[in-house]
UniProtKB/TrEMBL annotation:
Keyword Transmembrane helix assigned: yes
Keyword Cytoplasm among record annotations: no
Official protein name in the record: DUF308 domain-containing protein
UniProt cross-references to InterPro entries, sorted A to Z: Acid_resist_chaperone_HdeD (IPR052712), DUF308_memb (IPR005325)
Amino acid sequence: MTSSNKSFRSAVCLLLIAAGIILMVIPIAAVRTAAFVLGVVLTVYGALRILQFLFSRHSSLDITLGTFVSGILTTGIGVILMLNPSFADVLLEKLLAGWMILMGLIRLVISYTYKKSREPQWLSTLISALLSIVFGLVVWGSFAAWEFILDLLLPAYLIVLGGSGFLNIVFERVSDRARVPLPLWMEAFFPQKALKSVRKTLATGETGSLPPDSVYIHGMKVDTDDIEVFVHFSERSASAFGHVDLGLGDYVLSYGNYDHSKEAVSLFGLLYDGIFFACPREEYIQFSVSEAGKTIMGYKLSLPKEAQEQVVRNVNAFLSNCMPWSPAEKDRAANGYSWALKEMGAFLYKVVKGKFRTYFVLNTNCALLAETLLDKTGVPKSRAFGGAVTPGSAYALYERELAKKNSFVTGKKTYLNDDMLKDLSENTQKGSAGQTS
């Protein structure tokens, strides 16, 4: 971790602690003051966006009608917050209550998948789901419950979040178990944040800020000396949530909703039969960046021999719950991705036992399986608030581990998609032309 990055993160953590203390002392006044300040900021920002559209739209392709519309909306929200800061009280109350109800509904779906897979924790998950829904309804309809959260729970969360983050910065080897996780919706945006960062780096031509062993590939030979965790990023809406898989030897091991036949989909498209595959490593990376348009961050894990053997045991234990599977010819249109994997020489399996029998994007997903295959190896586990594991939380974890000394994460490679390769080539040529002139 660089000193500037460390200072910035320390400042953010201290601000969270200060915000928690202020909120605990003067909760209502703090919320309304923050709402007024936010209103001023939004009004100014919205007005600048409107002025950009009116006077600069002909000189920049980035300024469109959407710039004007977003400016109007932002200004409107800002004016409402300035004129009526108490509106923030009601808005925060309803947002928090709605979030609790939503988390409860998600837990209900998880409970259903566990029940379907005969997992014993289905009952405890059901109870926690019902409690979350009931508490959300209470907060929605009771100002006293909202006051309790605003006066005590929310300040405590901010203080502990900032404090744990600050301790992790000062004492880099503090266990990730002591880290307070961010809410699920915040972790979910990390893949898009990382993708924008890479694009910004390529646009400036300052490729030196990418990891030293970044890989700009087409058909390159992938180093398989160490186990590698792949975190995928994409601007395509279907893949914007990200994806995680595990490189082991000459193969990439992955899990997801790769069977889209009618028989494999349930609960209005929320649940799928879980499909696991092992695909030749080089072919899979090539396909992902060139055909699927993804950018991949590869985190190299240097594990001791006994930990590598544990990974093998984990994989074999998981495979004991699977049966070989092949997409049916009649479902070729629906299962185009599975057919592409098969043509690359992948071995596909349908999970028939255990919690991964049913794929659910907010619980039994690709990131959770990758973590399961690394269980008992000493590699830390990622968690978003509420216990979910997402590609965003996995990305955040491996970035933190990469910055630590004596970590199992010893390197990082960036596999760029075709569009980014083109940007890199164009910016490199411009840089060379500038130096020549």
